[in-house]
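Section 3.1: Structural characterization of target chains.
Under the original work plan, the team committed to producing a structural model for every single-chain target entering the pipeline before any wet-lab resources were allocated. The record below documents one such target. The sequence was received from the expression subgroup and is listed exactly as submitted; it comprises 104 residues.
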Amino acid sequence: MKMTWRQTVLIVSLLLMSTAAVAAPQVYKLGVDGLACPFCAYGVEKKLKAVKGVEKVDVDIKTGNVIVTVVEGAVFDQATAKKAVTEAGFTLRGFEKIPQGTSK
């Protein structure tokens, strides 16, 4: 059976969409004490981004919350978060996995 260009594109698109749906990132909310300035935020961000599997780090200095996005399958637990935050010179006061499909 000979496939047309459209059929090939459709099949590849469906495969990519199904893979993307399966490989959803995991999101965590960390409470960090001691964040007072952009330099502090950068220090925490740098240490967290060094953790294997961490894709994205968003720091909110006002609330002291750090949102960490991790690739699916990567190990990111409270001990890992605490180690990174402590190495940056701050205190981890909260660790929460944000369920898929909820707002941050």
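The chain is about 40% helix and 30% strand.
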